[in-house]
Fold these 3 entries.
Entry 1:
Amino acid sequence: LSNLGQKDEIDRAMQLGESVYGCFQMSGHTSTLLLLNYALGMVQVRKIPVGFMTLVKAIAEKMGVPTQDAIQVMAHKDLVGEVVPMSPNDVESEALIQSRSLQFQALQPPLTRLLEDIKEFLAFFAFQKAAGVPKQLELFGAVGRVTGLAEWLGQYTDLSMVMCKESILELFARMEHPVGCNLLKGAESNL
């Protein structure tokens, strides 16, 4: 999410009347989680090093298929649903991972990383910043290209997931009154 996207998300939070707003955008090689508490003026963004192509490449390499084939399979078949997040350092987990399907073996590490980063950031925002937890995450970008991912994220984060049909840029373009906030308010020096 760029600064352009962040302004749009502030407006979305106000429109939706959410005390805490969250959105998740999956791009090619990274994902971005934005959490916002408008009442507190708190906006936090985390970049996560797992994106659509991370998942595609994991499947392509493990299955020995071209990238384009992996993209097609992920779009039409739920490869994510069977994946259970596990610690990679646990010997029992490692044995269980190796006994599962190739798709499970391929997707388990990046999906576990994605989920751990999301949960860690949600906890940071809620407890370290005392800013609360969103009731739902709006999903943007390539999330919809991975069959079952939205449901999987909802299951393991205990949040509702809402797939947005429009992109962040489309939402921004429709704004009647763009919203801005001074993130430097109260700062001791200029950038």
Note: The chain has a mean pLDDT of 84.
Entry 2:
Amino acid sequence: AFFINYYLSQKLDVSLYGEFSLLFGFLAIVSSVTLMGQATALTSVFFSDEKNGYKNIVKELNHSYKLMGYAYISVGFSLYIYWYFFDTKYSMALFILFCFALLFATAKIFFTSLVTLFDEYKKYFLLTFIMGVLSIIIIILYPSLEGFLYGVVVSGIVAMLFGVKLYLMNKQESIGDKVYKKKELISLGWIA
């Protein structure tokens, strides 16, 4: 993030760099809202299920995906209403790209958390290195707001691939007793 900020501060004019900074901060805040604390809840659920086996983790992950999906749709709809009625500066294409970046920024945080759960620290460092290098390459090739958003999308896809691969490799079938409900997952996410 530091290199991308520095690089864009040198390549963009002051006004466009200010827009990038606002977009960067807004994306960070809104992705936290759409995440709904599920990366943290995932940690609690995972270690709870580890004690009882991993039979219910798929149901709990599906609950988390649904919660994040509902939040994403709500935020996306709210942003669309704002864009449609109040914002005439940005094109529909940039708005759609921002929505994709928001989706993949949320996924990046969630699946990076999933990678850390399996104590695969070498793979975690490899993942962060790959995401960083890809983001830097995209910013160098496209030093713009769009380039930044493309970098977020690509790094989100990489995190999803790593997370899903590690989950499938480490998936264990066993008997578990507790299945966390949606309300419990929301509580676990927002408390932590």
Note: Residues 172-177 have pLDDT under 50 and may be disordered.
Entry 3:
Amino acid sequence: ISADGDLVAVSWQDVSAGGSNTTGNDSYTRVSLDRGATFGGAVNHTNFNGGASGVDTGFTKVEVEGSLVVVVYQGGVPSTIGGSGDRLFASISQDSGANFTQVEVSLGLNDTDNNCLLVRDGRILIGYEEDRTGVDEIYVVVDQNGGADFLGGVVTSDILVSSGAATGNQEIYFADGAGDVLAVSYEPEAGA
């Protein structure tokens, strides 16, 4: 859940179509424009490029600022729309949740897990765990322009936050920041 003034957004993962980590999980958001007194209908974010919903989503997060609503979620992408494995997506609304556009923010790489989201001063920062090098590492992607960079396809690089030979899933706990400073809290090896 996230709120800014009158705007409130609630996001969740629905596993009723088969249970955790099975095809059929979807990520949803409902938005209120009156401080939570009433909410609009549920928006299903897991219709990738007009494809079928139910693609094993997880790790759903939401943040709002002004009229910007950002939802981040992991999606297991079916091969029918160009890939397989877990990728990271953002669903962005610049009009208080009236319309959302989905974009992939993990640069088309597979095996993403765990994520954190920060929306502050018009910037979107998304941290996630990925094992593109054979070990689990933490990366951050940044949109400096209130969603315009991500929506315009400007996800051209990411920032490596942790490196080394972690052997288990690294857990990301939160991101915070002010000005040009970003802090990402993570556990180098889950359970260690």
Note: Residues 141 and 158 are 5 Å apart (CA to CA).
